[in-house]
Amino acid sequence: MLRKTLLGLSKAIPINPRVVAAQYAVRGLIPMRADEIKKALATPEGRAKYPFSSLVYCNIGNPQALEQAPLTFFRQVMSLIDAPFLLENEQVTSQYPADAVARAREYLGHIGKGTGAYTDSAGYAFAREIVARRIDERDHGAQ
């Protein structure tokens, strides 16, 4: 479906053919080959065959498996938005970075009492505006 969309779009605007040809390899040749190697590593013969003893699946990313620290800012903001009563307790908010608390308060100012209610099918207008502004700043420089 996405490939058809990209092919049609690439006729209207130039899109790198590698982008059009890209595949989301959740179940493709690379993970299938990784499964074969993992099975081989479970045998003495397989362990002798490869210069490594374990495998990390990275075909769709897996940063924490490679000991990259997780991105916490977004999780902190979401935890406060999902449980806005936490913002009323200074002992709790003092455990969060000030910018996460400020962002949660800002977002709650737009969405009300927390998450869970239905929104516009395209998402919150304020969030779409922020994304559009940041993309514009990225692509055209901050004005």
From TrEMBL:
Its EC number is 2.6.1.-. Keywords: Aminotransferase, Pyridoxal phosphate, Transferase. It is an enzyme of class 2 (transferase). Its cofactor is pyridoxal 5'-phosphate. GO terms for molecular function: L-alanine:2-oxoglutarate aminotransferase activity. PANTHER family: ALANINE AMINOTRANSFERASE, ALANINE TRANSAMINASE. Belongs to the class-I pyridoxal-phosphate-dependent aminotransferase family. Alanine aminotransferase subfamily. Homodimer. This is Alanine aminotransferase. It comes from Trypanosoma conorhini.
